Amino acid sequence: MPTKLNMLKFAHEFELKGLNFYLRYAFKTKNMLAKELFYNLAKKEIEHAQKIDGLYAEAQKISSTKIDLRMGPSDIEKDLKDFFKNQVKKELKKGALDIAGYKTALNMEKKSIDIYIKMKEQAETPAKKKFFELLANEEEDHYNALDNVLRYLTGTGDWLQEDESKTWNWMNI
Do the beta carbons of residue 63 and residue 57 sit within 8 Å? Predict the structure, then answer.
């Protein structure tokens, strides 16, 4: 069983890996909707890394400052909805689409969900359990965002038939 410090270090490195991945793809893609999504995801990974870094410092007794484990509302859908609303719809599908990049991102988000669920189970305080639960939920939001945008850009309409809590039906404009 990995130690608490090893788990936190792994989680921090995983968030940094996600940040680098999203920044690389945001810069690389020519598709404006994908670019907006990847930059939004990069911002969220920075927030996650900051919180985990605080827990790591606290666990190493580097900092006696109490870490605020609360997470702000996940605003990726709102940000993309605002972006979507203000763009010419035919322009959103222009630009090369890197399907492999999306699949890598989806796998990364799925792995992070699993990691944070395990960390929640091993957390020693109710506040830390809640924190890792919120992180897992945010990563699930990231997964759903990637899935929705990918399916929108690839033109598959079957996603509208799915559960509305996971499908951004406002994209069907």
Answer: yes
Say if residues 138 and 74 touch (Cβ distance below 8 Å): yes
Distance of CA 159 to the CA centre of its chain: 20
Residue 52's SS3 state is helix
Dist CA 104 CA 150 (whole Å): 12
Query: How far is Cα of residue 20 from the mean position of the Cα atoms in its chain?
Result: 13
Q: How far apart are CA 61 and CA 76, in angstroms?
A: 34
d(CA 171, CA 65): 43
For residue 162, give the 3-state DSSP assignment: coil
Closest CA to 21 of 108, 146, 115: 108
Residue spans of the chain under pLDDT 70 = 1-3, 60-74, 76-77, 80-81, 83-97, 156-173
**Matching residue, tokens 């763009």:** 87
| H helix or E strand, kind and range, residue 16 | helix 4-28
